[in-house]
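User: Sequence recovery, please. Input:
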């Protein structure tokens, strides 16, 4: 996919603030600090359009980025970050759930996992939840640059096993550092959003 334009459009906490219109949306979900914003930046060839940070909990609102005037990337706040104040935590879940459950424009959720870690309780509940509500999703295992080829193979097998038992088997390997897997992720996005 050739990206000719990518711009931040808006931040939202509730549906009245979502962009108007029927442009398809691709959302990026996963644990805090896993690399959601970095994945977005890599896909659109920009260093920091989506704000990234070594400290978890950077993204706290639902951020919409318009790509080529034909797609929105939706950067979701990460879950599982212990240091966020309870008041913020309590509003987070409902904010993200409402978006995922009710947003008509949503075509695909990219569920991002760190290839070095086993999926957490929260990862599993997200996936079961998406499945329950019939939301289309794809796994991306990121930070593959931190492992050797052999380690990647072992980790991929292990993580696939967790999810294949539940019937989920589409997994893409990725690295924001080397852009490995970028074209494959774009291919899945284009399919889901029905972009030629
Ligand atoms: P929150 O918004 O806090 O939920 O985090 P996030 O999921 O958006 O993560 P973010 O993209 O901010 O990345 C977190 C940290 O991981 C940053 O220091 C990134 O540079 C690093 N990182 C992200 N992806 C990769 C990757 O593929 N490889 C390596 N080596 N580091 C990565
Ligand atoms: Mg982020």
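Assistant: Recovered sequence (196 residues):
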């Amino acid at each position: 996919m050739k990206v000719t334009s990518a711009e931040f459009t808006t931040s939202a906490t509730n549906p009245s603030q979502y962009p108007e219109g029927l442009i398809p949306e691709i959302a990026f979900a996963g644990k805090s600090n896993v690399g959601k914003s970095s994945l977005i930046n890599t896909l659109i060839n920009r260093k920091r359009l989506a704000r990234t940070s070594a400290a978890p909990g950077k993204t706290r609102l639902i951020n919409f980025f318009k790509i080529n005037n034909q797609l929105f990337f939706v950067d979701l706040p990460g879950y599982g970050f212990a240091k966020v104040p309870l008041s913020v935590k309590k509003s987070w879940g409902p904010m993200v759930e409402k978006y995922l459950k009710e947003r008509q424009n949503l075509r695909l959720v990219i569920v991002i996992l760190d290839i070095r870690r086993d999926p957490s309780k929260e990862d599993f509940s997200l996936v079961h939840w998406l499945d329950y509500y019939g939301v289309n999703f794809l796994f991306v295992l990121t930070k593959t640059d931190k492992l050797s080829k052999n380690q990647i193979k072992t980790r991929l097998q292990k993580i696939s096993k967790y999810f294949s038992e539940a019937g989920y088997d589409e997994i893409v390997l990725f690295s924001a550092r080397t852009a490995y897997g970028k074209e494959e992720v774009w291919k899945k996005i284009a399919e889901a959003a029905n972009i030629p």
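The pocket of magnesium ion (ligand 2) is lined by residues 36-37, 58-59, 75 (CB under 6 Å).
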